[in-house]
Design brief:
The structure holds 2 protein chains of 2 kinds. Chain A contains 9 helices and no strands. By secondary structure, chain A is mainly α. By secondary structure, chain B is α/β, with parallel strands linked by helices. The radius of gyration of chain B is 64 Å and the shape is elongated. Chain B starts with a helix and ends in a 12-residue tail after the last helix. Classes of the chains: A mainly alpha, B alpha/beta. Chains A and B meet through helix 2 and helix 6 of A and helix 1 of B.
Chain lengths: ~260, ~325
């Protein structure tokens, strides 16, 4: 009887280990990459060049579309908020507590994940299939320093910068909507926002953005590395990577909300 | 390559500048860079006190509770931080009250009557008093609760009456049931109302009699109408009384006009007669004077010529 129970508990443990092996692998990879952030050898001219290119593809190229989306969202959200909420205090809390700290990073992370994460996942999987990784290794080029960290740093920087830009654009359109459509003075609007702003919320927002950026680039890299040497493994790798990126986004969102409301 | 570098550099520079400016503005407005004054308050209880609790004056938050401590004497020490720009509100005579609204989180209210009083010394430890708002609300709510109690008692009474088979409501319902039952029997409305067939018969007989009386009265009225018509002819007809009367009156008016002239003449004559009477009076007076003169003359003659049968001569 006891031996059966021990076997059952063993089975549960084995299932849990198998189920979380991917998570554990990702976390171990994340720790490895994170530790390399503090390695001086990471920051060389080649890495910097890769970083600049990645930032260009991720943030600068997307900028016109991103600003357009931000303006549209700004008018929509502010129009609805001003129409629905007549109390300025609640309006301030809605804009700062929901639009700035929740909606801005969420839309930004979705845009970057759809555009850059999938590209990074595909790129790494293709490099793996083409055995470029082996070639780089044979030239003793550190993959983490040269390939991964510039992409992950790009994710962190892009997320922080684009989220802040999105929030600023939405708040600026809010200023336009409030003064032109609803006749609220600029001072009243700014004062309302200031009263609803908590410095701690901004700090949490920036940390959340950095975490988003870290994981939405790290997960595609790791999943891309897991591709086999067959071409058919590339789409499978991208599919798995994007699902895991989505799970990571939801997990980080929930965790940040829990930290905020504790 | 240089173009990409320039674009990326420009993006990072502008976005970072915007972020830094925004955060700096918020931090400045929130008083992060301004001097902060710390004061200590004391309280016998730490209930409802939390770190970060707002300190407000006239509804505006001017500071926050930064720390809570319990000292050796069992007194709770509350440290509040007030930015320099709001420090004017904290005076030596300021009172600190913890406000516990029914809805919403508690806060410390600063009551300062005289803003020109001396500033509160950081070494002083004013006591934090408790607002009795909740007790006052309970006191005010008591009459309302009593009233609600009475209303509930009335509702209870009504429901009891509803449930009581001999109650008013049930009686009304029974009556309504009887009435609807009568309606369903298709009797006349009168029979349904009075409920007694004999009474209905009597009422019908009375109505029939009333109809006969009405017919008779109609006949009388017709006759009266005929008589009235004849009378009208006699009075207003061509040879009726009224036209004749009108002719008589017209004739009378003509005659009266003539009499009026005659009266005027009579008046005139009477005036003249009055004047003649005045003349006659004067004539009479003259005659009276003349007769009197003749009398006097006769006396004189009589005295001078005695006409008596035996005149007497008086001797000296």
């Amino acid at each position: 009887m006891i031996s059966v129970m021990i076997a059952a508990i063993g089975n549960i443990g084995r299932a849990a280990m198998l189920g979380t092996s991917s998570l554990r692998g990702t976390l171990a990879f994340a720790v490895r990459v994170f530790l390399n952030f503090f390695d001086r050898r990471t920051y060389n001219s080649a890495s910097l060049m890769v970083f600049i290119h990645q930032l260009y593809f991720t943030s600068v190229q997307i900028l016109p579309l991103f600003l357009f989306v931000a303006v549209i969202f700004g008018f929509l959200i502010n129009g609805m908020a001003f129409n629905a909420v007549k109390n300025m205090d609640y309006l301030g809390r809605l804009l700062m507590g929901f639009v700035v700290t929740e909606l801005s990073p969420f839309i930004t992370v979705l845009l970057i994940a759809l555009r850059s994460s999938s590209a990074i996942n595909t790129e790494i999987a293709v490099m793996k299939v083409n055995r470029e990784m082996s070639t780089l290794n044979s030239f003793r080029i550190d993959l983490i320093h040269y390939l991964f960290i510039p992409r992950i740093l790009n994710g962190v920087f892009s997320m922080v910068l684009l989220t802040s830009l999105f929030a600023l654009v939405v708040l600026s359109t809010g200023l336009l909507v409030s003064s032109l459509v609803f006749g609220t003075s600029v001072d009243t609007y700014v004062d309302t926002l200031l009263r609803s702003t908590d410095v701690l919320d901004i700090v949490i927002l920036l940390i959340k953005c950095a975490t988003f950026g870290f994981f939405i680039t790290l997960i595609p890299i790791r999943i891309g590395l897991s591709a086999s040497e067959e071409l058919t493994s590339i789409p499978i790798s991208v599919l798995n990577g994007m699902v895991k990126v989505f799970v990571a986004i939801v997990t980080i969102e929930v965790l940040s909300s829990i930290i905020r409301f504790i | 390559m240089q173009r990409i570098e320039f674009k990326v550099g420009l993006f990072i520079a502008i976005t970072s500048l915007l972020i830094m400016a925004s955060i700096g503005y918020v931090a400045y407005k929130k008083g992060v860079f301004s001097k902060v004054h710390t004061y200590t308050l004391s309280s016998k209880s730490g209930d409802n006190l939390t770190e970060g609790m707002p300190v407000a004056v006239w509804g505006f938050t001017i500071g926050r509770v930064s720390a809570l401590e319990l000292n050796d004497q069992g007194i709770v020490l509350i440290r509040i931080k007030i930015p320099d720009r709001h420090n004017r509100m904290i005076r030596a005579n300021s009172k600190f009250v913890i406000d516990k609204p029914l809805i919403g989180s508690p806060r410390i209210i600063v009551q300062t009557n005289n803003l020109n009083a001396l500033p509160l010394s950081p070494e002083m430890v004013p006591e934090l008093t408790e607002s009795n708002d909740i007790n006052e609300i309970i006191k005010r709510a008591r009459p309302i609760v009593d009233k609600a109690d009475r209303i509930m008692a009335n509702i209870e009474h009504i429901t009891a009456s509803l449930s009581d088979p001999a109650g008013d409501v049930n009686r009304i319902l029974r009556n309504a049931e009887t009435l609807t039952a009568r309606f369903s029997k298709k009797d006349s409305l009168l029979a349904m109302a009075v409920g007694d067939p004999e009474s209905v018969k009597s009422i019908h007989e009375a109505i029939n009699k009333l109809r006969d009386i009405t017919v008779k009265v109609d006949g009388i009225l017709k006759r009266v109408d005929g008589m009235a018509g004849k009378t009208d002819e006699e009075i207003y007809g061509q040879d009726g009384i009224l036209p004749q009367l009108r002719n008589i009156l017209r004739d009378l008016l003509g005659k009266l006009a003539k009499i009026d002239v005659t009266f005027d003449n009579i008046n005139k004559v009477s005036y003249e007669a009055a004047d003649s009477a005045k003349d006659l009076k004067g004539l009479r007076n003259a005659l009276d004077e003349t007769v009197k003169s003749i009398g006097n003359l006769a006396d004189e003659i009589d005295r001078k010529i005695p006409f008596k049968a035996r005149p007497e001569i008086k001797l000296p």
